[in-house]
Amino acid sequence: MALRLTPEAKKDIIVLTVIETPHVIVGAAIATKVVNPALALPLALGSHFVLDKIPHWNPHLFTETQKYGKPTQKSSLIVAVDVFASILIGGYIASQALPNTAHALTILACCFLAVAPDIVEGPYFFLNFKNKTIEKWIRFQRSFQINVDFLPGILTQIITVAASLWWIYS
Q: What are the boundaries of each domain within the chain?
């Protein structure tokens, strides 16, 4: 008996794996190849903004929050699964550096810094913590990002993940 997925289910499965994950994997790739933490850490943080300039797809947390007062349940699930996947992937890549604990910690720190600009937004969207500083940050992030429709946006994220994994393991 073959499992058949609807086109919507296939889309949801793809979406559940590629929102913050590219940021984390790029951060890990930087740390695996640039072993000096003084250089790797700021590069990982900067990579977030570079990736945001690449056309990509994201759930519309800001639009949903403006319309409904909070992100939809589907977007919240996408974010939760993606964060969990990002933690697992980042942790796995960092574990490959062991027994060099310092390098493993640098990889984890780079993973964190690569997503830190988005983490700052979490309380606004998911804890209803509204303040002027976070709202200014969200406006900045929105003006900086290049969001596109689902298919081309997911394809650029998949290519980013594949290229980063190739770089890590080459």
A: 12-169
